[in-house]
Design brief:
mainly alpha; 26 helices; 54% helix; globular
Length: 570
């Protein structure tokens, strides 16, 4: 995907975006959506609409801290999803029919007015996605304007080698110096020739910030710093780095916002030092020495055997720590590819999703899956001297989610089989049943219809398109689009022979994870505006799907890399 050369809106278009800003700041979903529909009808570029939307919300989708202690009780302060929804809006059109190209953007616009200033929402001061259970309208009949928790600022230039400057920035992040770290990062970006290394460090900072426990915990990062970093990079590349300041402002300061959980990464470092290096460390006080061992391990290319895949899956899904550590160590010492190991960890992540029962159970597993997707993207696009270690964080994350699901009521293993009614059905009939089951929020049935389609041996492209369409129809929560997109991306990329499990997991997640309000409202508004059939969510007839099935035959099974080689230095 080529970098855009967007010009700043002028005249009537600038006035339209000013109107959009006012509607978003009023927290008016319907009015903001109406402005978007007019922009779509006028043929405005998707990248422009994304950039302008992010410009509006960037100051108000930060948090001062992602945890509060309320009267002695620990509470979680949610991570922003407006930026992640924008990434989904950028990528989903690649696996959707042309007539649905702007549906993901419509879902983003429907959500953004509800996602401003999560901190104040959780204090009950304002309505929105996070304040839906605590907003006190009697106390705040006229909610205060969203709060800007971190000011924008100018670049801060630093001295030294690039490694010195990158390490200085990471130290500021670790120390929670939000303003200074943001300024220093902007300074690091001023040299386009150094951009690949700078962005790799941004991703690394996000990927190492993952909690080391989930079960009976109340607050966690769930990998969100890395998802935010990735969205920042993909969206900046799409609009052009010279136009990306507001995207950088939306994404980078939060990397340093606390709390920061580095203990899982500390475990990964200790594993390499004590089990994978040729020489053991002599003292914890000795100078840190970075060898080439991580790079040597990452260069390994051997695939896992069937027995080795089964061993790793069992260690992650069924055994307590440190079984997964020992399994990954054994595979690395046997010369196995870290990318192939990650592909198997990702299948384990999908299996955890498939074991979820009630909606809230999907919360941690869906984030664990997104972490493996983001790590695979990092592996494909960046060089970094600590890449291999991140396998142990991925293993830890999915092992934790497996235990969380196993030890929580209402979950368990399910065998997915084609429904008896599937016998003799055509391709379009099977896809119609799948679409109807997802829209009606029947998770196990949705996965069963995927299994029926796979058993019938039909072309996978319409199936992938139907799954993307089903995820994109669901609104009021960007997880609907984010997770479905991740699973579809990985289906087109993974080396795993079990990749069909990703399609079952995509269907089950779309139908199964928690929904808020009328989750089809935004789709139906979009459909009315652009002459598409409505989705009722009550039958398997799938009228909206029938209208676009022919287009789905053109859906690709694999997308191009999100950051093609060389683009980051343009």
């Amino acid at each position: 995907m080529a970098t855009s050369t967007l010009e700043a809106p002028t005249g009537d278009i600038a006035n339209r975006y000013a109107d959009l800003e006012a509607r978003i700041m009023d927290r008016d979903q319907q009015a903001a959506s109406d402005v978007l529909y007019d922009l779509v009808r006028d043929g405005r570029p998707l990248e422009e609409m994304l950039r302008e939307t992010i410009r509006v919300h960037a100051p108000y989708t930060q948090a001062p801290y992602h945890q509060r202690i309320d009267d002695g009780m620990v509470r979680f302060v949610n991570n922003d999803h407006c930026l992640l929804s924008a990434r989904a809006s950028l990528r989903l059109p690649g696996v959707l029919p042309a007539s649905m190209r702007f549906l993901p953007m419509a879902q983003t616009m429907w959500y953004v007015p509800t996602g401003l200033d999560a901190w104040s929402q959780l204090l009950g001061k304002a309505p929105g996605h996070y304040g839906r259970r605590v907003y006190d309208e009697s106390k705040y009949p006229n909610p205060p304007a969203p709060t800007r928790h971190w000011a924008d600022g100018d670049p801060i230039m630093t001295e030294g080698t690039l490694d010195d400057r990158l390490n200085h920035w990471l130290t500021l992040v670790q120390m929670g110096q939000v303003d200074e770290s943001y300024g220093v990062f902007q300074g690091l970006l001023t040299n386009p020739a150094e951009r690949p290394e700078v962005l790799a460090q941004l991703m690394f900072a996000g990927l190492i910030d993952v909690q080391d426990r989930i079960y009976m915990n109340r607050s966690y990062t769930t990998g969100h710093k890395s998802y935010r970093a990735r969205a920042t990079i993909e969206l900046s590349n799409a609009v052009g780095w010279e136009n990306a300041h507001d995207i950088i402002y939306a994404g980078v300061p939060d990397i340093a916002v606390g709390p920061r959980w580095h203990s899982a990464y500390e475990m990964a470092c200790e594993v390499q030092l004590r089990r994978l290096e040729d020489e053991l460390p002599q003292s914890s006080l000795a100078r840190t020495v970075i060898t080439g061992r991580d790079a040597e391990l990452f260069a390994q290319t051997d695939d896992l055997s069937s027995a080795e895949q089964a061993m790793l899956l069992h260690a992650i899904l069924e055994q307590p720590e440190p079984a997964y550590m020992e399994a990954i160590i054994e595979l690395l010492l046997a010369g196995r590819s870290p990318k192939a190991i990650l592909d198997t960890i990702q299948i384990a992540a999908a299996e955890v999703v498939l074991r979820c029962g009630e909606g809230p159970s999907f919360s941690m597993p869906q984030h664990g899956y997104e972490y493996t997707n983001t790590l695979a993207w990092f592996y494909a696009n960046f060089e970094h001297k600590h890449k291999t270690k991140l396998l142990f964080i991925a293993g830890s994350f999915i092992n934790q989610t497996a235990r969380w699901v196993r030890d929580s009521p209402g979950n368990g293993k399910v065998v997915f089989r084609a429904p008896a009614a599937a016998s003799g059905m055509s391709r379009d009939q099977l896809l119609g049943q799948l679409d109807g089951a997802m829209a009606s929020l029947r998770p196990d049935e949705s996965a069963n219809w995927v299994q029926a389609y796979l058993d019938a041996g039909y072309d996978r492209r319409p199936l992938v398109g139907t799954l993307a369409f089903g995820a994109t129809k669901q609104g009021n929560d960007p997880h609907n689009q984010e997770i479905g997109l991740c699973m579809i991306e990985d289906y087109g990329r993974t080396s795993s022979p079990f990749r069909d499990r990703l399609l079952l997991a995509a269907a089950k997640h779309t139908a199964g994870h928690s929904k808020y309000g009328d989750s089809l409202e935004s789709y139906n508004r979009f459909a009315r505006e652009f002459g598409l059939p409505a989705a009722q969510g009550t039958s398997g007839e799938a009228d909206p799907l029938q209208a676009v099935l022919d287009e789905m035959e053109q859906v690709p099974l694999a997308q191009e890399e999100a950051v093609p080689q060389g683009l980051m230095t343009n």
